[in-house]
């Protein structure tokens, strides 16, 4: 049979004390971990709230920027042609003077000369603002610049595919077609 060692009461007390100390240490460690978990959780919650706040502020700031940009764009569109129209006012003044001169004079040549000067001034104004006439005289038909209204049979082989007549002038604005030339093409 096995013999059990008899534990002395003092030793038993020491063992019990050791066990209770271990239990207390374990409980203290568990409480410490719980406190760390709570503080870590609170820190993460605080950080999340801060990030959400920053995100909301950033979204609001972007929305304000978008609205401000849209308003500026609308204002720009409203006043974009202001300078161009302002530059046209002297031409209108010239036309007014020409109309008054037509009523006051019987000299048709003076009226023609005045209108020719106004026309030349207007063409110069258009050229200064990037508007140019699309040349159609003796030109080959090009769908990039011309619109064929009709075709006309021609006897000369050299005139086939070329422009015979221009019905309506075409114009470019800084090399972009803003109105195609309406032409009659030889066939």
Structure description:
- The chain is an alpha+beta fold and 187 residues long.
- The chain has three domains: 12-80; 81-129; 131-187, Nucleotide Exchange Factor Grpe, Chain A, domain 2.
- The chain is built from three helices and six strands.
- It has helices at 9-79, 82-104, 108-128; strands at residues 131-133, 146-152, 163-168, 171-173, 176-179, 181-186.
- Strands 1-4-5 form a three-stranded antiparallel sheet.
- A hairpin with a 2-residue loop joins β4 and β5.
- The radius of gyration is 47 Å and the shape is elongated.
- The chain starts with 8 loop residues before the first helix and ends with a strand.
- The relative contact order is 0.06.
- The mean pLDDT is 85.
Structure described in brief:
This protein has 187 residues and is an alpha+beta fold. The chain has helices at 9-79, 82-104, 108-128, and strands at residues 131-133, 146-152, 163-168, 171-173, 176-179, 181-186.
Radius of gyration based on Cα positions: 47 Å
Number of helices: 3
Succession of helices and strands: HHHEEEEEE
Overall structural class, as computed from helix and strand content, comes to alpha+beta
Q: Widest sheet: strand order?
A: 1-4-5
């Amino acid at each position: 049979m096995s013999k059990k060692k008899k534990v002395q009461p003092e030793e038993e007390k020491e063992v019990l004390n050791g066990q209770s100390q271990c239990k207390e240490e374990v409980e203290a460690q568990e409480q410490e971990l719980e406190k760390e978990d709570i503080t870590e959780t609170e820190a993460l919650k605080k950080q999340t709230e801060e990030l959400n706040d920053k995100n909301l502020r950033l979204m609001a700031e972007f929305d304000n920027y978008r609205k401000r940009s849209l308003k500026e764009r609308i204002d720009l569109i409203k006043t974009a042609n202001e300078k161009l129209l302002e530059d046209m006012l002297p031409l209108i003044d010239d036309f007014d003077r020409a109309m008054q001169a037509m009523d006051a004079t019987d000299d048709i040549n003076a009226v023609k000369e005045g209108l020719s000067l106004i026309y030349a001034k207007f063409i110069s104004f258009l050229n200064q603002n990037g508007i140019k006439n699309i040349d159609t005289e003796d030109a080959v038909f090009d769908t990039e610049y011309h619109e064929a209204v009709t075709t006309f049979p021609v006897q000369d082989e050299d005139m086939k595919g070329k422009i015979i007549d221009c019905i309506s002038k075409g114009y470019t604005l800084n090399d972009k077609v803003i109105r195609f030339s309406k032409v009659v093409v030889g066939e």
